[in-house]
Amino acid sequence: MTVVGLPYNYLERLTGMDKDTILSRLPMIGSEIERREADHADVEFFPDRPDLFSVEGVARAMRGFLGIETGLPCYTVKPSGITFTIDPNLATIRPCLGSAIIRNLSFDEESILTIMGLQEALHWAVGRGRSKVAIGIHDLDTIKPPFHYIASPRNRKFIPLDFERELSMDEILAEHPKGRDYAKIVKDFPLFPLIIDDENNVCSFPPIINGERTRVTTNTRNILLDTTGTDQKAVQVAVNIICTAMAETGATIESVEIDGMQTPTLAPAERRISVKECCDLIGVELSASEIATLLEKMRFGAKAEGPERVIVQVPCYRADIMHDWDIFEDVAIAYGYDNFTVEISQTFAIGRAHPVYTVAAHVRTILSGLGYLEMMPFTLTSERVLYDAMQRERSSKVLSLMHPISEEHTVVRTDILPLLLEMLQVNKPRELPQRLFATGDIIEDMRTTQRLAAASIHPNADFSEVYACIDAVLHELSIAYIVGESNDPAFIDGRRGNIIVDGKTIGVFGEIHPAVLNAFELEHSVAAFEFDLRAVPGYPGP
């Protein structure tokens, strides 16, 4: 979920409606108001609507939803006469490029923060943490076209944003905060992607950082937008969303010629939808003209094509529309969820907690009583975290993803403890001691079971602490156990033990090995345990 700050004055100026009316209706388009401050509101939007990640996008949607301005927004794109070339050597590095010229801007501090916020939100929602798409926004009047997207030697120097001295690109990866954050995306390439102008001035080092030369300020009136990445469709989505958001402020959009092709066009896509299919899905009888009117409230172009079909023009910024059912959902939103008839379900049943969740609830009570805080780590992780960082051999029983979205989410977890150590790494700036636990599903050998893991970090965390903790937990769960010798390489030899129940090893506990602490960049001792919850008496299943 993405939280967008909506300054009241700017929002009211763009919508022509008072803030109270807007905020009262915002939840009906699929948002949640996190907090209301004196000068702004923080609103959470689903990641499938990146066009709403800016004040401009929200204002456009609300003008339609409130009936102020309905129908398809019309965006005119003029050729700028500016060209962009792409170095063939980028084909195996970061081959995709999108661009546009945006003129006649009138920036103040508020609108600059808005566009920078949109940029960062798109880096997350569309760009997968900049690995798939990265966006650069530059003061056009500080550089000279035509522009060139090149594969540069790594020793090329320029002044990166927020620095006062030149750094080589390798030095940027080591010294600049953004370089350290995103170095993993490019560090293994022999050449680095670079955008330069016709006088060899550096505009940006995508996906890491822009050059200080092209910094956007309140004096900026024209900008060069560049988006680079590994997926051309995602690159173009980012261009469309930013261009149309800026057009909502009165800016003029101009296309750029990239290797002979003009981009962007900002033209809508066209679909034909079935009236019957729409009505069957949402459960409301509507005519073709009524569906068209509702879709215009959601800023689509729509026209009835006889009684059975509606021609729909999908705005270029609606990257979430992949199926007719996505359009039917917008029909339901425009109709108003508060207008649907409330009915009692014809199916009646008395619910009860599943035994697995009953055990999990008991576990949570015990660990909370021992002073541990619960966390809910992701189910997806990587073999690097599960095995390599833990000094454990990779397992053949792990379930791998066929099409992972990133190298950090390639498998389904077979253990929970590595993910707790990852969280301790994230929490390094927090005060100590930190004591975390998690319980939940793991999948091993195509079979789902449940585990409990806990970790404690502070200078005096040791074997005695975790032994006392595991003894208390197992006692409260009525598990009769003995401790056996362990050879788990994630723990220190001589300060580790296996948990054995009925002659079977169900878990391990002890002090985490220094090499594992180094792998997770932890600076203090960690005492931890993990065991299989199937050992709990009365646990369902085998």
Describe the structure concisely for a colleague:
The chain has 542 residues and is of the alpha+beta class. Helix content is 29%, strand content 29%.
Describe this structure in words.
It is a single chain. The chain is of the alpha+beta class and 542 residues long. Strands 4, 5, 6, 7, 10, 11, 12, 13, 14 and 15 form a 10-stranded mixed beta sheet that branches. Strands 19-22-23-27-26-25-24 form a 7-stranded mixed beta sheet, sandwiched between helices. A hairpin with a 5-residue loop joins strand 10 and strand 11. Helix 1 (8-15) crosses helix 3 (55-65) and helix 5 packs across helix 6 (177-186).
Q: Could you say which overall geometry the principal axes of the C-alpha atoms support?
A: globular
- The end-to-end span amounts to 38 Å
Number of E strands: 27
If you average the pLDDT, what whole number results? 92
Largest sheet: 10 strands, mixed
The fraction of residues in strands falls at 25-35%
User: Share of helix among residues?
Assistant: 25-40%
